[in-house]
Every structure is written in structure tokens, then in C-alpha cells.
Design brief:
Elements: E1 2-11, E2 14-24, E3 29-33, H1 40-47, E4 55-59, E5 66-68, H2 80-84, H3 97-107, H4 124-137, E6 142-146, H5 154-165, E7 170-174, H6 178-184, E8 187-192, E9 195-200, H7 203-238, H8 245-258, E10 283-292, E11 302-310, E12 314-319, H9 325-332, E13 340-345, E14 351-354, H10 368-373, H11 381-390, H12 407-420, E15 425-429, H13 437-449, E16 453-457, H14 461-467, E17 470-475, E18 478-483, H15 486-492, H16 518-570, H17 573-620
Parallel strand pairs: 3-7, 3-8, 5-6, 6-7, 12-16, 12-17, 14-15, 15-16
Antiparallel strand pairs: 1-2, 1-4, 8-9, 10-11, 10-13, 17-18
Helix pairs in contact: 3-4, 5-6, 7-8, 11-12, 16-17
């Protein structure tokens, strides 16, 4: 076990830890939370001996191995598999550890073809994954993981959650993904106001306790301030009266014993809203049969994808890394052009695009304030400072140059630039990678109240469940539109190559009380998927056709409105009459088609719910441990 007692650490005048104590007991999996800059990574460095602490003790037993995910990648193995097994422990039971290493590599997104590759040939993201695989294979007594999901895709994140839930040794985990943390840990430990508090349970439970304790503290402080003020008033009033001298001395002694509770400093977090540009149409963007690849001879990243974006749509874009999610965003933003199909953007669309690669577009020589001001020439310095403050660059922090900012601070600058110009379509590509939990909560709230459309790429299942109502899924070698939430997707479709549950020792002939065995459950699931496709497929095709028809009519109205303006200018009476009738009919048709679309949507949702309930009944009859 790890034991920390009365630990203190400062950088100059900045106190990070002030006499903190805690222990990580056998088999505990601990989530470490705290605002950015509170000292989470510093604590890891102190435990690993990479930094010196000012006072206190960190006690680690002899032969107690501490493993960690290093962001500085160094490889010694000649192949991916050899690198993964470098620190592999030897088990007396003869367990095939090479098999275990392969299983971990596959879970983290490698293929069997990658096992013999030179690690130096891998992309930066997969090199970090290989480092993670190596430390997982090594089975340390204490595993330290600092943001392990930053380089993982959504499928690998789901795998890692299950792996860590089965971790038999100790673990301290830092992650901004609340769902990931709460799913994997048994305890939560928070760094708050230079102290550390540890509880059994989730992040929600920890923050709830901290909030209650601070409310009690503040109420106590207010009450004591009131008592102090009353005592001081009594002393000042009766100090000169001899007959009150004893009472006055009593009040003076009481004040000396009371001490004084200091008012807690306010902790600022992201507090902002996206500025909305007006949009009066129904559809902002339509993608029809879009295809794209960087090399004409290669397999397309996007092939025959069709979808439309409505005014208040919330669309999640999901899939493995490198499959085309960011490429799709670049196509929608007009930074790339499709090789096939078309992307039609409404003339009144005001698009705002946040992407991790856009960090490179920041000018290192500029200050935060100058980056905000550079977006719009008519933006005042006072307004820019307000945006800087909302992004936690208050006061002189707004004068920091981009060159000295951390990755998280640069992400906040990009978010700030997004807020300067009004928009009605937000493209957000992994906006939470460098945000802490409180900032992510603020971002989700800002998305929720934004009146325009939002399309978001994220590997966070928490954000997908909170935000997305439709999905664009990169899986099975293609990109497809899915009508439904992320929970709907997992229940109805699931990931193509997600690792299935291990077979139970029971044979397929064995059954539980309900009489449903493993093979039979698989057969029933296949039949269910086929039935669902037959019932919902025609409805989804009709919905898609209606959406395309409505978009076409709106384009026709736009064209005829321009023709009507020209005819009015020229005084062409017959053309004015004909165009007015045509526009009126098109608008009536749009309303009629929207009514039909609404009916189809309700029918689709009702049928989908019925099918889900039937499948739930079947899956509940599966033996314990079956893959549902």
C-alpha cells in the first residue's frame, strides 16, 4: 500500500499541498480529481520521485512496484509485441503472458498485423497506446494513469474501463471523463484548496460532501463574524464604564479565544455561452452521397454519406481514430472538398469550428487578448477582456503569450475565439481533451442552451449521452447516419469489433431457469436485428427522402425569391404572379411534408421502443455473464 503523511509542496508563493495525508489500501482503485493546476500530475511526480516535496513523508513498501503511463515515449523492443512484453512478470502457474499482451494490444486498438511492426513506425497516438499496453502487461502493485483516454478512441475507452474494473492491485487514475472514472474506481480522492479528501464512492458523492462542508464552514464563519461584531460593539460601547469592566474583559477574552475563520477564495471555472446568429430556415446544411479519400486509389474515408443538419440538431460523430471523423469536419467546414457527391450549405449559415489541430493556428507571439481581438476588427478591448475572463484568463493572465500556454490553456483560447463571432452551426472536434470536469460540465450546459445546431466529435460516452440525439458512425469500414441516441446505438447495433465477453465454463447445452442458452441468445439477437431492420428500415428511408425533398423545396424557394426580386425591379407582372404562386405552393408543401415527417418520426420512435422492450425481455432471460 501507499501511505502519504503531512505532505507539503510549493512552487514559490504558490502552495500546492499543505500538510496532506492519505493512504491507498490493498485492491483500492482511486480516482484523483481536482481543477486544472490543482496538483494532480504533481502528486504523481512526487510519488514517482521525479520531484522533491518540501516536508512530510511518502512511504512505499519494499519490492512494491509502481508503474505509470509516461508521456515521454522511449522504446527498447524491436517489435510492438516485444516492447509490450519487456516488463512482463513471470507467473508460476505457467500463464502464457504473450497471450495476455496480445489481448491487451488488441483491446487498445492494435491489430495482429501490428505485432511485428517497429514501434517507431507507429503514429504518436499509437506509440502512447503501446506505452500504456506495456505498463498494463507489467502488472505493477500500484498503477498510476494520467489521462489515459486522451489518445484512445471510443471503442478502446470502453475496453479499458472493463480492464480496470478487473484490476486486482492498486490504482490511482486521473481523467477528465467523469463516466470513465466513476465506472472504473472504488474510491475518489479530491485535491481542493491545497488539501486532499478521499472517500469511498463516486465523484458526485465527493463533490457533494465538499459542497456540504463548505456550506457549513461559511455559515459558521458568518455566525462567528456576527458574534465578533456584537462583542466588539459591546467593548467599544462600555469600555469606559467602571461598572461594566468585568463584562468588557470577558468579551475581550472571548474574542482572543475565538480566532478568525478566513473567507474562502472563490474558485472560478468556465462560465460562458455561445453567441447565437439568427437563422430562420429549417435546414442549415445538406450532405448528399458524399465521398472522399486523400489518394484516388485508396479506400475512401467517407463513401456515399448522406445527412442533413436542422436548426436545433445535436449530432455526435463517433468511431475509431483515423477513420475519418476530423476529415468529415474539414469537409463540412469547407477546408476540404468532396471527390463525389455534394455539400450544400445554406447562405445564412454562420459556422464556428473548434478542432484540436487548430491549436497550431494560434500565433505564439500574440497574447490571449490579441488572439481574441484578432477574430473581429470591430470587437472592443473591454469585450475581449470579458471573453478572456470567461475562459479563466482574468486580469493580467489575458496578457500571457500563446507560446507559454499549456495545451489546456490553448484549448480555452480556441473556445474563446469561438465565442467572439455569432454562429448558428458549431463543429466541435474533441473540445474536452484538456478541460477539467467542472469546465466540461459548463461546456455541456452551453451546448444545451445554444439555439443553433451542434455537431460534436467525442470519445466521451458521458457527453454523447448528455448531448447527441443523432449519430454519424464510423464503423464496419464506412460512415452511416444513425437515427437515435448513443444508448440506442449500443442496444440496437453495437460496435463491430468490440471484444465480446469471455465464454462461461458452462456448455451451450446448459441453461438457466429461463431455458435460454448462449447460442440461442445469439440466434435470437440476429433475428431481432433482422426484424428491426425490416420494420424500421422503410420508415428511416421515408424520413430521409422527406428530408431531402424539403431541402430541395427550400432551395427552390430561395432561387425563386431572387427571381421575384428581379421581376419586381423590372415590373414584370406575369412573372411576379407566377413566382408568387409557385413560392406559396412550395411553402405549403414544406409544411405538409414536415407534418408527414413528424408523424413518421413518432411512429419510428414508438416502434423502436416496442422492439427495445421485446429485446430487453429476451436479454433479461440470458444466463448471468452473457453478452447482451
Amino acid at each position: 500500500m501507499l501511505s502519504v503523511a503531512n505532505l507539503s509542496k510549493s512552487y514559490g508563493n504558490q502552495v500546492i499541498f499543505d500538510g496532506v495525508s492519505f493512504a491507498v489500501n490493498p485492491c483500492e482503485r482511486v480516482g484523483l480529481v481536482g481543477r486544472n493546476g490543482s496538483g494532480k500530475t504533481t502528486l504523481f511526480r512526487l510519488i514517482l520521485g521525479q520531484e522533491e516535496y518540501d516536508s512530510g513523508t511518502i512511504t512505499i513498501p519494499k519490492r512494491y512496484r509502481v508503474g505509470h503511463l509516461s508521456q515521454h515515449v522511449r522504446f527498447k523492443g524491436k517489435t510492438v509485441l516485444k516492447e509490450a512484453t519487456l516488463e512482463m512478470p513471470v507467473h508460476e502457474d505457467g500463464t502464457d503472458e504473450a497471450f495476455r499482451a496480445k489481448k491487451i494490444l488488441l483491446g487498445l486498438g492494435f491489430t495482429s498485423k501490428d505485432f511485428d511492426r517497429d514501434p517507431l513506425e507507429l503514429s504518436g497516438g499509437f506509440q502512447v497506446r503501446l506505452s500504456l499496453a506495456r505498463v498494463l502487461v507489467s502488472e505493477p502493485n500500484l498503477l498510476l494513469l494520467d489521462e489515459p483516454t486522451n489518445y484512445l478512441d471510443i471503442v478502446s475507452v470502453r475496453w479499458l474501463i472493463q480492464f480496470l474494473k478487473a484490476w486486482r492491485n492498486e490504482l490511482i487514475l486521473i481523467t477528465h471523463d467523469r463516466n470513465f472514472m466513476d465506472s472504473a474506481v472504488t474510491h475518489t480522492m479530491g485535491i481542493h484548496r491545497t488539501k486532499i479528501k478521499k472517500i469511498a464512492g463516486s465523484t458526485h458523492k465527493l463533490y457533494e460532501q465538499i459542497l456540504q462542508e463548505e456550506e457549513v464552514y461559511e455559515q459558521t464563519r458568518v455566525n462567528e463574524e456576527k458574534k465578533r461584531a456584537e462583542a466588539e460593539e459591546f467593548i467599544n460601547r462600555f469600555r469606559a464604564q467602571a461598572n461594566r469592566a468585568k463584562a468588557v474583559q470577558s468579551r475581550i477574552k472571548m474574542l482572543e479565544k475565538m480566532g478568525k475563520l478566513e473567507k474562502m477564495t472563490e474558485h472560478n471555472g468556465l462560465d460562458f455561452q455561445f453567441r447565437a446568429a439568427p437563422f430562420h430556415g429549417k435546414w442549415l446544411l445538406e450532405a448528399e452521397n458524399v465521398s472522399f479519400s486523400f489518394d484516388h486509389g485508396s479506400t475512401p474515408l467517407v463513401d456515399g454519406l448522406s445527412f442533413a443538419i436542422r436548426k436545433k440538431d445535436r449530432i455526435g460523430v463517433i468511431g475509431k481514430n483515423g477513420k475519418g471523423k476530423t476529415t468529415l469536419f474539414n469537409l463540412l467546414a469547407g477546408e476540404l472538398f468532396p471527390l463525389g457527391g455534394r455539400i450544400a450549405v445554406h447562405q445564412n449559415v454562420k459556422l464556428a469550428y473548434f478542432g484540436q489541430t487548430n491549436i497550431d493556428r494560434l500565433d505564439p507571439g500574440r497574447t490571449v487578448e490579441e488572439e481574441i481581438l484578432g477574430v473581429r476588427q470591430d470587437f472592443s478591448r473591454n469585450a475581449a477582456r470579458n471573453i478572456c475572463g470567461a475562459m479563466m484568463f482574468d486580469g493580467d493572465k489575458a496578457l500571457k503569450r500563446v507560446a507559454v500556454l499549456s495545451g489546456g490553456e490553448k484549448s480555452r483560447v480556441l473556445l474563446g475565439k469561438l465565442l467572439v463571432s455569432p454562429s448558428n452551426l458549431l463543429l466541435l472536434d474533441e473540445p474536452t481533451n484538456h478541460l477539467d470536469m467542472e469546465s466540461i460540465d459548463s461546456l455541456v450546459e452551453a451546448i444545451d442552451v445554444f439555439p443553433g445546431a451542434v455537431v460534436i466529435v467525442t470519445h466521451s460516452e458521458m457527453i454523447l449521452n448528455a448531448v447527441a440525439k443523432k449519430l454519424i458512425v464510423f464503423d464496419k469500414g464506412k460512415a452511416t447516419l444513425f437515427h437515435g441516441t448513443y444508448r440506442d446505438f449500443l442496444e440496437r447495433v453495437g460496435w463491430d469489433d468490440e471484444e465480446k465477453a469471455e465464454p462461461s465454463p458452462a456448455t451451450d447445452r446448459e441453461r438457466d431457469k429461463s431455458g435460454v442458452g448462449r447460442k440461442e441468445l445469439k440466434r435470437l439477437r440476429a433475428e431481432f436485428i433482422q426484424t428491426r431492420s425490416k420494420i424500421l428500415g422503410p420508415l428511416e428511408r421515408k424520413m430521409s427522402a422527406l428530408e431531402n425533398t424539403i431541402v430541395g423545396l427550400e432551395e427552390k424557394i430561395n432561387e425563386e425569391n431572387q427571381s421575384l426580386m428581379r421581376a419586381t425591379t423590372m415590373g414584370e407582372g406575369k412573372s411576379i404572379a407566377a413566382l408568387s404562386i409557385s413560392i406559396h405552393e412550395a411553402r405549403n408543401n414544406i409544411e405538409r411534408f414536415f407534418d408527414e415527417l413528424e408523424i413518421l418520426t413518432r411512429t419510428h420512435n414508438a416502434r423502436s421502443k416496442e422492439l427495445e422492450e421485446k429485446w430487453s425481455e429476451l436479454s433479461r432471460s440470458a444466463p448471468p455473464g452473457e453478452d447482451r
